[in-house]
Amino acid sequence: MTTVAVARPVERRKLPPQVRRRRFLMVVANYSFLIAVAIAFLAPIGFIALTSLMTTNQALSPELWPHPFRWSNYLDVFRTAPIWRWTLNTMMYSGLATLGLLLSSIPVAYALSRLRWRGREIAFMIVLVALMLPPQVSVVPLYATWSKFHPFGFHFVGTLWPVIIPNWLGDAFSIFLLRQFFLTIPEEYLDAARVDGCGELRILTTVVTRLAKPAIAAVALFSFLYTFNDFFLPLLYTNENPHNWPLQIGLSQFRSLHQVQWNLTMAATLLVMAPVVVLFFLAQKAFVEGVTLTGVKG
Amino acid sequence: MIDASAGAVSRPIARRRGRSRAAWRRRGLVLLLMGPWLAGFTIFFAYPIVWNAYLSFTHYNLLSPPKWIGLANYRYMLHDDPQMWPAVRNTLWLIAVLVPLQVVFALGVALMLARARAGVGVFRTIFYLPALAPPVAATLGFVYILNPATGPVNIILGHLGIHGPLWFQSPAWAKPSLVILGLWGIGNTMIIFLAAVLDVPRHLYESAELDGAGPFQRLRWVTLPTISPVILFSVVLGVIQALQYFTQAYVAANIASGQADQAGDTLNHLGYPLDSTLFYPVLIYQHGFAYFNMGYAAALAMVLLVVAFAVTLVIVLNSRRWVHYSGAVR
């Protein structure tokens, strides 16, 4: 702080050669690290893919490269396990949960961001707490309640409904993400609508939802990912009933159904990873939107 | 809303009545909008937690009504359950080892990525994608890659003259194997750190440089202090995730044990090998949904609730620091 560096204009071109060399070496070290990590990150996928193309015996041998390439493994996966059934169950869970949480969370997020009322901050904090607490803290009584609850003889345990229905009554993460977005909508837009005689409900259903399309897309995307990957609660409720297994439960049981066929298991693994990767490349913009909105959500 | 006070001078009574009617309508609107969440919160959150507290003092197996047994569940938990302390230790191990490693690794990758000029997009995609992989699929893949006999990792280690460990088959290596799996999935944290690092104002670096700070001093005195709230948040979030760590442990134990003995019984798989992957949520699952010892599972869940709530409060009470979105109207 004492010496003033006024008389030293920063000239990047005339750096002394040692400094330039050191910078160059830093760049080389930097890229070596990045490339090494990239290889380490890609290698698992590579090994999984290679194994998925081996014959059953080859997959149990110390060979790393398949010969011949057995592409029909991917057909065998569908023949040996009810993949379509599991996919259908996952789609039902995903679709109904996502639709429900969008319809129920948008109004809540609006009330928490654009309306002023007493208790708003406390309500928002409760949403955050609900977002953070592990599902295990409430799972015992919920399971007990669902298992005792059979209207018209319909048993909820054994189906995915106990996992789907709570999403229809607001989802903490979606409320949080949407609220963050609603806060960024300039008040002038809403005021303009109010001057035109719009009530708050009309503003919500027309102006806000139209402006919030990117955030709604992000919520739908995250909801799809969450439900597609979800394991703990579906396991709890459908474990005893293979007919209602979603993909992840089916995949986790795949190897016990097919003993030591690592090649088929890896093919199934890759098939289950594929939709998520495809979705990522199709919807990168929505991803970026979501990650920056929730800022620090991991 | 602005003209309400102006009009109040001329027609006070009518105005006040009109205002209170408007206020009521407003309250009704808030209630209408908040309604679904209020119902959901009560049915699926508040009620189960209260009911869970009650069940933790009972013996309950779903078949007969809960029977009050006072503190017996808690006494058994503290003194007699042979798996309680291993489960607690395993979960603490996750918090002490997995969480810091994930944060440090994610930060390291983010710092390197922030310095790169070409190919940033490709690297970022490669580092981010594994985080999206379904946990079940990722775990399956790693159990195969790390399987002791024919897994690629041990084969390559063998070519290098190293006798690889038993990974998921060994009580000593099962948790480190899960750490490797966890490091593969740091994409989210890395992206957040990258954004934070790129957000550090340039002029801070420039003035540090003028003061003669080298790259490491700049990291220590400029980058780290500026992004410290983000780091803190990631640590706390990592702890919360460690507290509910279930899927990877369940699947890894299930697959690895099937390979060892090929018995079809799920129960013996939990915590395989030798309770080394028996984390606290796995213990809750075992008592609640394998033994249907719901009273005891509720008592275990109460302990988790208290711990998780304490950690959550750290985040929520500091929420203003990170929830605030730049440009937001408050």
Key terms:
heterodimer, A: 298 residues, mainly alpha, MetI-like fold, 2 domains, 15 helices, 0% strand, flat, B: 330 residues, two-stranded antiparallel ribbon, disordered C terminus
Describe it.
- The complex is a heterodimer of chains A (298) and B (330).
- By secondary structure, chain A is an all-alpha fold.
- Chain A is 68% helix and 0% strand.
- By secondary structure, chain B is an all-alpha fold.
- Chain B has 15 helices and two strands.
- Chain B has a two-stranded antiparallel ribbon.
CATH superfamily of the largest domain in chain B: MetI-like
The rounded distance between the terminal residues' Cα atoms of chain A is 39 Å
Second rung of CATH, namely the architecture of the largest domain in chain A? Orthogonal Bundle
- Quaternary state of this entry equals heterodimer
Unreliable parts of chain B: 1-10, 260-264, 323-330
CATH homologous superfamily of the largest domain in chain A? MetI-like
Task: Please provide the ordered H/E string of secondary-structure elements of chain A.
Answer: HHHHHHHHHHHHHHH
Report the major sheet of chain A: none
Q: CATH fold name of the largest domain in chain A, please?
A: MetI-like fold
- Mean pLDDT of chain A, to the nearest integer, reads 83
| Number of individual domains of chain A | 2
Q: What is the CATH first-level class name of the largest domain in chain B?
A: Mainly Alpha
Low-confidence stretches of chain A: 1-7
* Helicity level of chain B: over 70%
Radius of gyration of chain A: 26 Å
